[in-house]
Amino acid sequence: MAQEILQVTPLPTFMMQMLQQGDYVVHDHTHIKDPGALSKVTALVGTGASKVDKKLLMMLPNVKLIAICGVGYDGVDMAAVKEKKIVVTHTPGVLTDDVADLAFGLVLSIGRRIPQADKFVRNGDWVDDAFMLTHKVSGARLGLVGMGRIGRAIAKRASAFDMPIAYASRTPKADLPYRFYDNVPALAAEVDYLVVAVPGSDDTHHLIDTEVLMALGQKGYLINMARGSVVNQPALVQALKDKVIAGAALDVFWDEPMVDPELRRLANVVLTPHIASATVETRHAMAALTMQNLQAFYDKAVLPTPVPECQ
Length: 311
Ligand code: 8YV
Fold this sequence. Notes:
Blueprint lengths: L2 E5 L5 H9 L2 E5 L14 E5 L6 H5 L6 E5 L8 H6 L3 E3 L6 H16 L2 H9 L19 E4 L3 H12 L4 E4 L10 E3 L2 H6 L3 E4 L13 H7 L4 E4 L8 H9 L5 E4 L10 H5 L3 E3 L8 H19 L13
The structure holds 2-keto-D-gluconic acid (8YV).
């Protein structure tokens, strides 16, 4: 019998095809054609951007799995999930390299002002003047806020650029040679590039605030491809306007895809539309892992990648 699932957000066409081939009946939560379907749905599928709150879960009495096609699941109300004995899966590992690649691309882009230089050539400005001098990335000090899978992958890339590496996390990692800080402002004061690599959660909400930005200082750059919620965005906009920091490169924002117009007007920023994992290869690998989690759930087999709280 075909299993009935609900897609919480739009999914890529190739994933919809995988679901159809897997004989799933997929309902779209914004256009449920059959109201009776709500009680037939046993699993939800969404992305890292999906909001799954208590209100939605209360409408779905028989949901027992939430399969997130993404590593972050900060949009899922974990208290409601626990209460309803639902299991959540996600897709860690398969996107680590892409996210680290983009993080490093953002470091290079803001440090060397690559998008601005591209615009300079396209606008014909080169004819009148030489492009501004930028700042050296090789050998500059890199600080990581968080040292999980993605933090480690960024550190590996930074090592190849001879960057001294330091990190802030709850506990030091015994296997790593990098300098450890137990708080973010102290780390920020010692680095040129501060890269956010922690998951979005209540614990990390606004971890990057005015104090951190002041510590990072006039020569420092902030890079965020983790979650918009980790940064106090109005405080960042103010710091960028007042030149409290040198610049920021951001792939994630509050209230995506609506990006603060003030931020969009600034010259000392590089902005990308939440694309850290958005390569053909990785998005297919994420979709395949999500399908494996779904299949394992219906086969009553061991789930490949449940989130830590559900292990
Ligand atoms: C995407 C992400 O937003 O994995 C995450 O947590 O933020 C991204 O990979 C998304 O989940 C794509 O499906």
